[in-house]
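Marked as duplicate of an earlier ticket. Keeping the data here for the record.
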Amino acid sequence: MKRLLIDYQPEVVRIAYLLDKKLLEIFIDYKDKGSLVGHIINGVVKNILPSRFAFIDIGQEKNAFMNLDANNTLKPGRHVTVQVKKDATGDKGANVSSVLHFNGRYAIVSPGVSEEIGISKKIEDKFERKRLQKLAAKYLPAGYSVIMRTQSKDVQEEILKQEFEYLVDKCISVLETAKYSTGPTILYNDNPLFNDLITDDLEEIILSNEAALSYIKSDRVKLWDEEIELFTAFDIERQITKALHRNIWLPCGGFVTFDPVEACVVVDVNTGKFMGKKNYRETVLKTNLEAAECIAEQITLRNLSGMIIVDFIDMREEEDKNKLLTVFGQALKKSRIPADIVGMTSLGLVQLTRRKQREPLYRLLQQPCSHCKGTGWF
């Protein structure tokens, strides 16, 4: 059973995505520094660099930055409507784009771009893809492009029509408001997270209290009315703490070590206590396969991104290497933001890249020790 638990407190909102009682993802939204990803903001151009970057004042401590195309005519002091793609991290401001996306449950609509109709690759049936393409062409006005999400598969025409109309009306409203706003102003608060998580196979959405009702709108919500706290009842607190540990033990007795550094995340696989019953090759393969599943889950849970380097235990047989890469690749695809395997080096290191959207879990819940500059926790 897939569940969404929302723990709503005055200072912070925590959202846990579970399969039965296993924590798959955790989202933490501090009220004083909540995520702006998906928000549409009327900003002010502060500076333009020859390298085709613009810095935009969107009302945050650091100016956002935006890539410019060759035909862009922006000038300092002008207003521009942008959408936040990535939150500010470290010394970098938020990453924004002038291409706007209005997210629905079944479709993502964009105004003012080429009139293209995209269909999720996960919808493989050619007749369904053709049906969705025809419906999008039928109900979307000129000047809009659309991406049909995986959830649109087999959805009734009338429901899709209503969503198209809602998204287009919202777009018109936002762009009209932008004409009259004078400074850095949030025009549209979007939370694309819920569009991704609230799928047809999500069976329960449990809220910690009535205050959480202001955070989410769905006909599948119910309030938690037990004496024990919601996250405690579902063992979330322990699983969050485990996701901050450096070492994760595998069922076979081996373990995986996670070391985030400045330029990348280094993951190391060790046999640990596991010696195997038959031979060394069997021991190494079993450990690596268990580690592959574990690493894929932890990358998602810890929200690791950028360059990730995995040092699996060295294997000599090409058959074993290919099996490992296949299993690892399949495990990584289960995530909403899958990591791409770049390849395996001659030293046996597997390189991954994963798109960054939010801060990693350890940065949200830990802070550097004033003495050793480490976390000071473990």
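See parent ticket for discussion. The CA atoms of residues 119 and 129 lie 7 Å apart.
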